[in-house]
Amino acid sequence: MASSSRLLAGLTCLLTSSARAAAPEALSEQDFLRELPEVLTVTRLAQPLDEVPGAVTILDRETLRRSGARTVAEALRLVPGFIFLHKEGIGQPIATYHAEYEDFPRRLQVFIDGRSVYSSLATGTATHGMLGVVIEDIERIEVLRGSNSAAYGANAFLGVVNVVTRHAADTQGGLVRVEGGEAGLAEGVARVGWGKTAASWRLSASKRRDGGFPGLNDGFDLEQAHLRGDLIPSGQDELQATAGYVRHGWHTHGLAREEGWSNVYARLGWKRQLDRQAEFRAHALYDEERYENYFPRWRADGTARRLELEASHSFAPVQGVRLVWGGQYRHEEVTSPDLFASRPEQRFDWWRFFANAEWKPHPRWVVNAGALWEHHSIVGARLAPRLMINHHLSEDHTLRAGATTAYRMPTLFELRADWRNENGVPQVLASGKARPEVVDVLELGYLGQIRPLGLVIDVRRFQESAKDLLRFQRPCPGCPNDFVNKDPSLQNGWEVGLRWQPTSETQFLVNYTVLHLLPAADNTNATSSLRAPNHIATIAWFQRLPQELELSLIYTALGRHYWVRPADMIPAWQQTDLRLARKFRLGATRAEAALFVRAIDGGHIDYALRGLPPIELNRRAALSLRLEF
Question: How far apart are CA 352 and CA 327, in angstroms?
């Protein structure tokens, strides 16, 4: 605790400095009474929250700043139904929604500025991709809590996370943040923005290093750089250009190996406003990722490349009806002599066509009907439909009900794996019989505002019936593993999210989720219902204090659960994080000093798998200083 004391003393000096305080940012009454925000994530049409066909949570940049989150995965613990922890050590932060844990959570689709970061390597995951954004650049995170293959196709199986970064014109000037803490934690962030309204640009870069949990050899390094340009060549047209590089290297606890993942990408998006209610959008994307495993007995190096072209058109053909339709072509290829020993180069093509109609037959009723048809050159075609009806009980209270079907396509590794050990003996040999995973979802929901109390209530009741889930299985004793569709899964439950702002200085976020996982008919394991925690709770308190001080307390609680095997049971746990910050000015420079203490109430077991010693998350403190000029 000596280092914690030094950190606290350093912060105290900053907080009591005589620098001139920044102007207060107290919220007005209008902040309590503002209209519900619009989102694009659900149907590809801009819709207010009470008219979208699903439950959506929005994390704005002010919430992200005050939470102290340094990654998208960490921020998602503020969303109902999400679980945040670390797989095999501090270097692999993971966020997953509802479904039981796996080695590689792979049933969540994640976008950053319209670019999917779902990996084509191995069994697929968005875990590494979620690290590929500088947290200071994020304008908001839109999270659809529910399946959405009807709009985005394969892999939007249980939910969609859409990260939207700030417009380059809103980030002119410079920003620097430095952070240091216990266990070798160090981070530096730099950003510069330039240009004018017609052409503005932003360049951001960061580097983070963490020594990991004590005695686990699980540290990591993360470095990245991103460029965004926003161009307005005419009164009708807008262009968005993005490009970047991400490098993530980490040590794996218990396996004495070093791993690495890197990504480079470039995307150009175009939007043309055709008239007041019609627009055309298109984008082109090139994305390349590489995975490196430095453990010689289990080499798994590989490179994946993706080329994507997409176009969509939205319009209002008649009064009360809006339509969006479009298509996408995607080419994906993976090269890996390790994962595909007999044929190192693998590829496939995807064609997608989608449409969604919003119909308002009456001011109190909204009907959303949509579907996406997708053809995979190896697996074949799939159709994902959705129908949702929203009924406005009044201006501030809305009910919704509906159903949708979603799926996850097998990756090239699940379809054609030929992974061998150093002696050339196959360890994973895919038969090619893997079928897409499918989930049918029924949903009831309520969204309401109680304006005099500054309270927003979001309730979701769901039933998720999944089939053809893919698992490792040996077809015979001593045979290599194959990917087999076998495990049906039924889970139901409810989740509630409250946002309460009783005063302009105080805000509470309260989330609570109850999950009931029902075992398959042939599963007699009494603990199978604990493949995910049966309850998840988060309470966040954001408080503005005198002298430009800010206090944040975030409490999280999870029920008992396990990852892959019942033998790796994780006891129920609670965690409380604290952030204390002060804004001030150094001349014309806006500044913020902050102290963040994780797990101030003591440690708990965060992860356990394969009989290895469990990972215990302990109390840690860090100091940061941010300057904007």
Answer: 5
Of the ranges 21-35, 254-268, 445-459, 594-608, the best mean pLDDT one: 445-459
Question: What's the pLDDT score for residue 295?
Answer: 67
Question: Pick from 230, 88, 75, 53: which is nearest to 138 by CA?
Answer: 75
Residue 416, classed as helix, strand or coil, is helix
Name which of 157-161, 252-256, 357-361, 407-411 the model is least confident about: 252-256
The owner of tokens 């004495």 is: 256
pLDDT one-digit tens code per residue, 166-197 = 999 999 999 999 999 998 899 999 999 999 98
Judged by DSSP in three states, 62 sits in helix
CB-CB contact of 605 with 590 (8 Å): no
Cβ within 8 Å of residue 461, ≥6 positions away: 443, 444, 445, 493, 494
How, if at all, do strands 109-112 and 160-165 pair? parallel
d(CA 15, CA 549): 8
**70 CB neighbour count, 10 Å cutoff:** 24
Rounded Cα gap, residues 8 and 5, in angstroms: 5
Regarding beta strands 380-394 and 397-408, do their DSSP bridges make them parallel or antiparallel, or are they unpaired?
A: antiparallel
Q: What's the Rg (C-alpha) of the chain?
A: 24
Alpha carbon distances (Å) from 77 to 93, 95, 97, 314: 12, 8, 10, 33
Split into its structural domains, the chain has a count of 1
Classified as helix, coil or strand, 31 is helix
What's phi and psi for 200, nearest 5 deg?
Answer: -125, 150
**Residues forming a β-bridge with 365:** 362, 391
- Domain region containing 523: 2-628
- The CATH code of the domain that includes 155 is 2.40.170.20
pLDDT tens readout for residues 267-316: 999 999 999 999 999 999 999 999 998 666 778 899 999 999 999 999 99
Q: Which helix (H) or strand (E) holds 65?
A: helix 61-67
- Select from 487, 491, 495 the least CA-distant residue to 517: 491
Digit-coded pLDDT (tens) for 13-38: 444 343 333 333 444 434 444 567 88
